[in-house]
Amino acid sequence: MALAQLIDGRLIAARLRKELSEKVEKIKKRGRAPSLAVILAGEDPSSMIYVRNKEKYSKEVGIEASLYRLPVQTGERALLDLIGELNESPDVDGILVQLPLPPHINAQKIIEKIDPRKDVDGLTPWNQGCLMGRREGMVPCTPLGCMELIKSTGVSLEGKTAVVVGRSLLVGSPMAQLLLKENCTVIQAHSKTKDLFSYTRQADILVVAAGRPGLVSGEGVKEGAIVIDVGINRREDGHLCGDVVFEEALQKAAFITPVPGGVGPMTIAMLLRNTVKASAFFLPQSSDLIKLEEES
């Protein structure tokens, strides 16, 4: 069998950003550019890199991004008050709290404070409920990006067996819901699953989001599968790797995402898309959301 075809997340994300920039221009003609407020508490190195990238690509598509950088000792009350102010601000469309937060802050309490209409990370209970109930709402960015990558292969998803390894509220669980929406038969595995490969070998679509480097080897991949590797892990030599043993899976899959360059760029692209979507909630007429979708 030939080597798997790489799913280039950088290329697809660049195309999506171009489409978004055109949509942002149309929104500007109706008033102002979409705006995103990013809150960073502390100085986690990875978080700082993510935030810089979010600011960079927001500027590229014409979104106004404001960074609220708080010291690590910031109290929970102060953070809740800031979110309350951003919720009320007519100049803020999207709010993103960069995770992880310092350990003395209850992250769930912070997330629940965000106005669901401005919740561009899709993590509030309201938006999680909308996803479960298949109603319109904000969907977490990484699963959205994964779906775009899967659909880019051109493979029909209906009736396919999909296995999601991971059950977090950020990736695994919403990913399973999105695949169900596409009429896949979904199996959700996790850290307590026994004989993991007996499930992953059934997968026409395999999404691995466990945060464990090399968790799935070639032995756990079905011939001809679509493999989406969400994991980003740093080896001792400083190089990044995924949750899938790439070199082995490459020999068996039909399509596979690299790490880096696969899911990562798509997460930011979906954040920008959610911000544009959030801005439509605050246009003068709600029908403008439909008009923007039709014009795109």
Description:
By secondary structure, this protein is of the alpha/beta class. The protein has 11 helices and 11 strands. The protein has helices spanning 9-28, 45-61, 76-88, 107-113, 125-132, 141-151, 172-181, 196-200, 246-249, 263-280, 287-295; strands at residues 5-6, 35-41, 64-70, 94-97, 161-165, 185-189, 205-208, 226-229, 233-234, 240-241, 255-256. It has a 6-stranded parallel beta sheet. Helix 6 (141-151) packs across helix 7 (172-181). It is globular, with a radius of gyration of 19 Å. It starts with a strand and ends with a helix. The model is unreliable at 285-296 (pLDDT under 50).
Kindly name the structural category.
Answer: alpha/beta
Give the count of helical stretches: 11
Shape: globular
Oligomer: single chain
Number of strands: 11
Strand content: 5-15%
Distance between the termini: 39 Å
Supply Rg: 19 Å
* Spatial order of strands in the largest sheet: 1-11-8-7-5-6
Mean pLDDT: 93
Order of helices and strands: EHEHEHEHHHEHEHEEEEHEHH
List unreliable stretches of 5+ residues.
Answer: 285-296
Major sheet attributes: 6 strands, parallel
Helix fraction, binned, reads 40-55%
